[in-house]
Amino acid sequence: MISAVPELVSEADVVVIGGGPAGSTVATLMAQQGLNVQLFERDHFPRFHVGESLIPETYWVLKRLNMLPKLKGSRFVKKRSVQFVSFNGKASAPFYFEDNNPHECSQTWQVVRSEFDHIMLNNAREHGVEAHEGARVKDVIFEGDRATGVRVMLEDGTQRLVNSKVVVDASGQSGLLMNRLKLRTWDPLLNKGAIWTYWENCYQDSGRDEGATVILQTADRKGWFWYIPLHGNRASVGIVAPFDYLFKGRAGHEQTYQEEVEKCVGVAERLAGANRVAGYFATRDFSYRCNKVAGPGWVLVGDAFGFLDPLYSSGLLLALKSGEMAADSIGEAFRKNDFSEEQLGNWGPLLNKGIDRIRRLVCEFYEGFNFGNFVRNYPGLKGRITDLLIGDLFDDKVDEVWAPMESLYPEGRSVPVAWDSGTAPEIAAQKRNELHIPEGATP
Ligand SMILES: Cc1cc2nc3c(=O)[nH]c(=O)nc-3n(C[C@H](O)[C@H](O)[C@H](O)COP(=O)(O)OP(=O)(O)OC[C@H]3O[C@@H](n4cnc5c(N)ncnc54)[C@H](O)[C@@H]3O)c2cc1C
């Protein structure tokens, strides 16, 4: 069918769909290699996004992006540790990142995402990326099985066809290509939901602990709260628990949140005297991955490839790392003039291995793994556990922890099944990740 609206046609080496952290990362690193990169973001920045806590291993990608001076000069709260509080209120000793590695990379940040993502996108522009906001990619164009460009819809209704050698999908959980090519495998174990809001004037730790993420297990051990201090005397506080527990047969987001806060003493104490500055956000956050990271002429990065339960704040690290790995393989693809699935996806096995490691630690936590107890039994392995918590996921050394962990299993427990071991089709058919953003102020 011939469109009534005239279609503009342009060319790029690479098109990136989405201007979140994964999209900005891959775009910047490709522009640094001299490639002509066009990025299309459907929203206008700054825009709200959940996911405020960085982990230290993001440092190395942020360094390549030339983001470190911007972060050091920002108001973002400095994060130096993470601490776990178990269901009975017992706190583990904090895992201080600098004790494990006395390098400046051990200090990271708690970021307000509307600000962080905007800085990342503008940083991409400074490196030569042509980034368009208010530009929604409607479709990826294929010739046979090879991606050759995208069709973009601008806000005035104009359509643009952009031809490119490579299309990178960084569209987050919208997963444009994941849906079109039916690439998604739902994780059979991690079926959670989350409810959260933002507070002012709540309890703030001081000194070295000022910017710590605190993970507090709920009293019935069904889920956990995140407590993330943000600049401006604010905090992001949310609960993650099994989807059915949080959303089925309960009165509504506000009441569920309040009931859970009351039952979790550590959170209730921290919020005493605080005032809420936003409504209640909610999401289904079922974990998933695609069965490949690339195909001929196309590549997936960040949440457009996979999403993992946010327990250890690994989402931004995986967005940045996948963006980095993809940019390196795409740069090589241009040098070799090889845009095959094998070339564009040669980093997939390494990324999956890293995600497997942090996923295993997530599953162990839901099965009862206790950080304090592990360190008491295996003090020599505190460093290895810290390596996992900082996101050092791509080095075999961290695999030292699994056998000792299994030695503490109660009778009858077995190792968690793999992410791709299957979900019944009737359950998979009902799954859908959705985000509820309340009316009013968002950070
Ligand atoms: C409850 C919860 C808590 C979390 N907490 C943390 C945390 O503490 N720390 C952490 O590291 N991670 C956390 N995460 C995960 C983190 O938010 C994500 O992993 C991260 O945002 C992924 O970045 P991304 O760039 O892949 O996707 P996004 O940040 O979602 O960016 C995708 C972009 O693509 C754009 N887009 C989508 N479709 C189109 C289209 N068709 N055309 C153009 N643009 C499009 C969107 O507007 C968006 O800007 C959390 C997630 C959840 C659900």
Structure description:
Strands 4, 5, 11, 12, 13, 14, 15, 16, 19 and 20 form a ten-stranded mixed β-sheet that branches. Strands 1, 2, 7, 8, 9, 10, 17 and 18 form an eight-stranded mixed β-sheet that branches. The longest helix has 22 residues, at 315-336. The two termini are 43 Å apart. The protein has 16 helices and 20 strands. The protein is 32% helix and 27% strand. The chain is globular. The chain has a domain at 7-78 and 112-185 and 288-353: 3-Layer(bba) Sandwich (FAD/NAD(P)-binding domain). The chain is an alpha+beta fold and 443 residues long. α1 (21-32) packs parallel to α10. β17 (294-295) and β18 (298-300) form a beta hairpin. The model has no long low-confidence stretch (mean pLDDT 95). Residues 17-23, 40-43, 49-53, 136-137, 170-172, 174, 176, 194, 283, 285, 302-304, 310, 313, 315-316, 319 line the site of flavin-adenine dinucleotide. Flavin-adenine dinucleotide is lined by residues 17-23, 40-43, 49-53, 136-137, 170-172, 174, 176, 194, 283, 285, 302-304, 310, 313, 315-316, 319.
